[in-house]
């Protein structure tokens, strides 16, 4: 019988991502055939996996959703947190977000049960584009646009060069290929600006379009084919994070 790593087997059930599965294993919350196990364990299809005493071997088709996250919703799978994204969507199968949008931000986020696709999209070294529209509290100068595009020192690093375009006196469009914590807000703060509204409108080839706030839809066949083509050369390893 074919063996596979425990974290992969858990992610394939749609319970969580591989990384989250590793955390559960480290915390001693995972058992195989009634025995607690450690990282790196391999299992076969007949083995029974439980997390917190509940069996998680159910298989479902891969789910890929586009969700227009409203302001005030938290991108967490912890259903004990008020306003969490899982309870808000209330999808009939177990899914989780790919990446994050902070609570005050809105717009496009992917939801899935496919642990394999998560790291390919998230790893900074894969240079996948994410596009945002941002509104700030003061008039935007050309110097602001130039500095934002060339890199800002935040979080003990300098942000990668990116494309920044002025929309009007108070709004700009920015395309990033990295995802530092609250990156755009920190970049603006460094230059003396405060973000009043932040909306993600595109991830790679998939745009938010006219999807209403709070609504979700499945990827189209064409979107999924294009996305997989873009991911072909992507790494799933830690090397891509550097």
Can you walk through the features of this model?
- Helix 1 (6-12) crosses helix 2 (18-26).
- With 242 residues, this protein is an alpha+beta fold.
- It contains 7 helices and 17 strands.
- Helices cover 24% and strands 27% of the residues.
- Mean pLDDT is 89; it is low at 237-242.
- It starts with a strand and ends in an 11-residue tail after the last helix.
- A hairpin with a 2-residue loop joins strand 11 and strand 12.
- Strands 7, 8, 9, 10, 13, 14, 15, 16 and 17 form a 9-stranded mixed beta sheet that branches. A 4-stranded antiparallel beta sheet has the order 3-2-5-6.
Defining traits:
242 residues; alpha+beta; Structural Genomics Hypothetical 15.5 Kd Protein In mrcA-pckA Intergenic Region, Chain A; Alpha-Beta Plaits; 3 domains; elongated
Short description:
It is elongated and about 65 Å long.
Question: What is the topology?
Answer:
Elements: E1 4-5, H1 6-12, H2 18-26, E2 30-32, E3 35-36, E4 42-43, E5 49-51, E6 54-55, E7 64-69, H3 85-89, E8 96-98, E9 106-112, H4 115-122, E10 130-136, H5 142-150, E11 153-154, E12 157-158, E13 163-166, E14 171-176, H6 183-190, E15 195-203, E16 206-207, E17 216-218, H7 221-231
Parallel strand pairs: 9-15
Antiparallel strand pairs: 1-4, 2-3, 2-5, 5-6, 7-9, 7-17, 8-9, 10-14, 10-15, 11-12, 13-14, 15-16
Helix pairs in contact: 1-2
